[in-house]
Design goal:
CATH superfamily of the largest domain: Jelly Rolls
Oligomer: single chain
Largest sheet: 9 strands, antiparallel
Radius of gyration: 20 Å
Helix content: 10-25%
Shape: globular
Distance between the termini: 25 Å
Number of helices: 6
Length: about 325
């Protein structure tokens, strides 16, 4: 029986808004000075992670999903459902929106729409996100876009490190400059840009906007999602359930010592935000450190942790 954590090699993405903090903060070997995204746990065709250890070493996560479904609780579906990223926004991301499953499948032939959530790893003082808008109808939304009334249209919220933001499909949103987040999302790469600050790429071209699609999929009027984090202790591990919704359940874990006989809910996605330590399963002990991404497969029913570290963990709901 396969009973050890599955460590993954991230995939990095150059972005017009990216920088170098993925290297400075996590020690990653990034491909450029404008690296915006680390796809830490991904089976998406646009950037699948590669397994680094064990009998499946060298396979992509998608290949493991297709060939070894028993590691993932036998979950059904052609596509691995979740994608975990770390984003470094040196400058503002475009204002954007994502579709639901039905629209993504019908229009984009993508397996999933995109509901996501963000844990704020770091941000500058007085940082803001675009989250929602002030239009009361699609006609009012279109009129504000046509007239370039972005300050009137877009709703902004203040953030600080440690904040958690839930972004259901249909939510108008944008990550602001100087912000680093860990994003847990459905495994989708469909994004519709509403506004991109009229900036140009290195070829002098503006990026495409998708106003028609954005208005079709956007939540109008905007409504905030409501959720209540719940915290408990398991040994020296503080577990905060940040959200449980229809696509994923996401936690923040803070380890300061030892936590034994932790139950694995199905298969657990783990990203190490800080610190280091060891995970022990029935097959032995593996070390982890800041910046590591791994999966505890469903064949590991219980495991123990030792060290001082913080994590974002998640699983399908």
């Amino acid at each position: 029986m396969y009973a050890e954590p599955i460590f993954l090699q991230p995939v990095f993405k150059d972005r017009i808004w990216g920088g170098t903090k993925l290297r400075e903060t996590f020690g990653y070997q990034i491909p450029s000075e404008t690296t915006g995204e680390c796809w830490g746990i991904s089976a998406h065709t646009n950037g699948p992670s590669t397994i680094l250890n064990g009998p499946l070493k060298g396979l992509t996560l998608d290949e493991a999903w297709q060939k070894h479904r028993g590691l993932f609780a036998g979950q059904e579906g052609d596509d691995f459902p979740l994608l975990v990223k770390i984003l470094d926004a040196k400058t503002d991301l475009s204002v954007q929106v994502h579709p639901d499953d039905e629209y993504a499948q019908r229009v984009e032939h993508e397996a999933f729409g995109k509901t996501e959530c963000w844990y704020i790893i770091d941000c500058e003082e007085e940082s803001e996100l675009v989250y929602g808008h002030h239009a009361k109808s699609k006609d009012e939304f279109q009129a504000m876009v046509d007239n370039g009334q972005w300050d009137k249209l877009l709703r902004k919220i203040k953030i600080q490190p440690g904040d958690f933001v839930y972004v259901p499909n249909g939510t108008i949103h944008a990550i602001g400059a100087g912000t680093m987040i860990l994003e847990t999302q459905q495994s989708s790469d469909v994004t519709y840009r509403v506004y991109d600050y009229d900036r140009k790429d290195d070829q002098g071209n503006t990026r495409d906007l998708h106003i028609k699609q954005s208005i079709e999929v956007a939540m109008i009027p905007h409504e905030d999602a409501h959720f209540q984090p719940v915290e408990n202790k398991q040994g020296d591990l503080t577990v905060k359930k940040l959200i449980k919704e229809s696509y994923f359940t996401v936690y923040h874990w803070a380890l300061n010592g030892t936590a034994q006989a932790l139950e694995n809910p199905m298969y657990l996605l783990v990203s190490v935000l800080d610190g280091e330590g060891e995970i022990e399963t029935q097959n032995g002990t593996s070390s982890f450190k800041k910046g590591d991404h791994f999966i505890v497969p469903s064949t590991v029913k219980k495991f123990s942790l030792k060290g001082n570290a913080s994590f974002i963990t998640s699983h399908s709901s």
